[in-house]
Predict the structure.
Amino acid sequence: MQATGAYLKLGDLEKSEAALQKLAQVLPSSSESLYNLAVIQTARGKISEAIASLQKSLAVNAKELTQNPKAMNLRQHLFEDPTLAGLRQTPQFQAAFGSKP
């Protein structure tokens, strides 16, 4: 996560995305890393990849919520996150996630 943050500060979205992809492979049960990957993919214009990452993130998050009801509900956050405002307007997003829960 620190490497991702460092790359973001440098404005290197490509390396930030690569770091998050590695993190998601190492920690496949981390909904946060998958969600953050989707944010970077959105910023890079990779709509299909961002949707896929969000779908994985929400699936993992659903399991997290069953174990810890106080965990952040990423499905709800998805509709409030300003970094994903543009993505929410795409037909791909609307087909995958519908409207606000």
About this structure: The mean pLDDT is 90. The two ends are 29 Å apart (CA to CA).
